[in-house]
Amino acid sequence: MKPTTIANYKVLEKIGEGGMGTVYKAEDLTLGRLVAIKILHPHLLADSMVIDRFKSEARTLANLNHPALATLYNFISFENTYCMVMEFVEGKTLSQILKEEGSISPDRAIDYCAQVLEGLQHAHAQGVIHRDIKPSNIIINEQGCAKVMDFGIARIIGSQRLTRTGTMIGTIEYMSPEQIKGEEGDEAADIYAVGTVLYELICGALPFTAESEFLIIQEKISKSPTAIRQISAGVSRHLSQVIMKAISTSTTKRYQSVDDFKRALEGSQAKGDQSQVTATSARSLFSGKHLFFSFAGLALIVIAFLMVDLSESDEEGIADDEEAPTEVVQWVQNTSREDDTFEPQESRVLPSLRGVQVSSMIDSLFKEAEDLFENENYLQPADKNARAICKRILGINPRNEDALSLLKRMATMYEEEGDQKVLVEDKQGA
């Protein structure tokens, strides 16, 4: 039954219900403003641990003050239970937006998640880990501002734990693998959850989509998430790499702070803008009155190529079976951090008449290498892994920037110890 008044608050309507309590929209009769009141479920009053957790959430919110986090106004006792009076946010949750739109643009998703990361950065600085970031806990107001709600299972670093050892706390779909294993969950767990939310906002699907919670748990522990570009091909390579790093199964391979994650997202957005400018310029070149001159210029270029001395081209070209320069091969075989500064010497030019065909083949190989990289197939299986395919590309064209860039990224994630490859923390971020 809905209460009519709680202290000096007039209850207007029920707006939500969770595992710990029911949330009502109410009016503060003293200050004349709308508030949200969260009332602890009566049947939970017999559990002292639940009461402690509810009070802990109130203390947590009281110490947080950030535009992207819900503000706590008051904590009161009411009819043998407890209530939190919080800021009322007019808007829609991300889960409602997903239900209505299916998915949203990468730029919009990045904007929302960057705001969430800013709020979490403030919370983490206060020693508070949310541990249950998900679309239904993030509200977007009419101005497009994100607000993180429900710190009901948040953990304050250094405080007494309020959950039983080995107990899973969170929502399975957004829960990190370490939380699934019963660990407390630290900043890396919040990073994983935000990465999963971002993945879902862009794709309209989750990284793991097994039919039952049991199977999702098994997959999260034993498998890598589905590469986002396999679901949404329009996602830029850089953004894909940023998201896949955030939802890596291993905590050491994720971003080590929400600030690192946020900066990587902003970087991917900037690169996406540059790509869009390039694409727009290309479309402009081949539109309207430029079309005739573009084709005329292209015809002249083709004629010029046909007049090239073929024997001279073959002498200067790189044969299909020719090995890459020794310094390239040595660097590829030793992917250590020390070698990350390697730059190959100026290589010979590919035969001009084979350029289009070779370029197409390299693009196809690199896409395969990139997909393997995103699925964490860096060195295995032996006959088909990201490193091996990059070596094939460099055997064709030692100057290929995409292959060199991907190898350098792997070089920052591995160090050489004899014949043993050991994963290390990527300190440089994206």
Helix share bin:
40-55%
Overall structural class, as computed from helix and strand content, comes to: alpha+beta
Principal-axis shape equals elongated
What proportion of the residues form beta strands (DSSP E)? Answer: 5-15%
Question: Order of helices and strands, N to C?
Answer: EEEEHEEEHHEEEEHHHHHHHHHHHHEE
Largest sheet: 6 strands, antiparallel
Q: Mean of residue pLDDT?
A: 75
Determine Rg (CA atoms, Å): 27 Å
Number of helices: 15
Count all strands and give the number.
13
Which strand order spans the largest sheet, edge to edge or round the barrel?
1-2-3-4-6-5
Short description:
44% of the residues lie in helices and 15% in strands. It is built from 15 helices and 13 strands.
Describe the protein.
By secondary structure, this protein is α+β, with helices and mostly antiparallel strands. The protein is 44% helix and 15% strand. The strands form four sheets. The chain has a six-stranded antiparallel beta sheet with strand order 1-2-3-4-6-5, with helices on one face. A three-stranded antiparallel beta sheet has the order 7-9-10. Strands 8-11 form a two-stranded antiparallel ribbon. Helix 8 packs antiparallel against helix 9, helix 13 packs antiparallel against helix 14 and helix 14 runs antiparallel to helix 15. The protein starts with a strand and ends in a 7-residue tail after the last strand. The C terminus is likely disordered.
